[in-house]
Amino acid sequence: MRLFTEETFDYFGKGERSYYTHARFQVTSVVKVYEYHVDRYVRRLFPRILPWVEWYFDNTVEKLIFTLETQK
Q1: Considering the domain boundaries, does residue 56 fall inside one?
Q2: Are 67 and 24 in contact (CB under 8 A)?
Q3: What angle do CA 28, 49, 62 make, to 5 degrees?
Q4: Do the domain assignments include residue 53?
């Protein structure tokens, strides 16, 4: 898989689409690490327009950090 989104791990535990594997996870947190200029000039100064910038511009998020909890 080359593309990750905030909903990527929903395939491993949420809903009827979780048939891919028997592993089950619950996402406890998702942290977005933004590109330097987006972080400095948009997120800090204009946080209300950040979702719009994410939607319409590419390469705004450099990393997604997931914290997962296993479900047994």
Answers
A1: yes
A2: no
A3: 50
A4: yes
At 6, the pLDDT band (50, 70, 90 cuts) reads confident
Q: What is the pLDDT of residue 13?
A: 67
Provide the number of structural domains found in the chain.
1
Q: Could you write out the DSSP letters of every residue in 4-55?
A: --TTGGGGGTSSTTTTS-S--EEEEEEEEEE-HHIIIIIITT-GGGHHHHHH
- Domain span including residue 60: 8-70
Q: What are the residues facing 49 on neighbouring strands?
A: none
Q: DSSP letter at 56?
A: H
Report if residue 1 sits inside a domain: no
Per-residue pLDDT tens digits for 11-67: 776 666 666 667 777 888 989 899 999 989 888 888 899 889 888 888 888 888 989
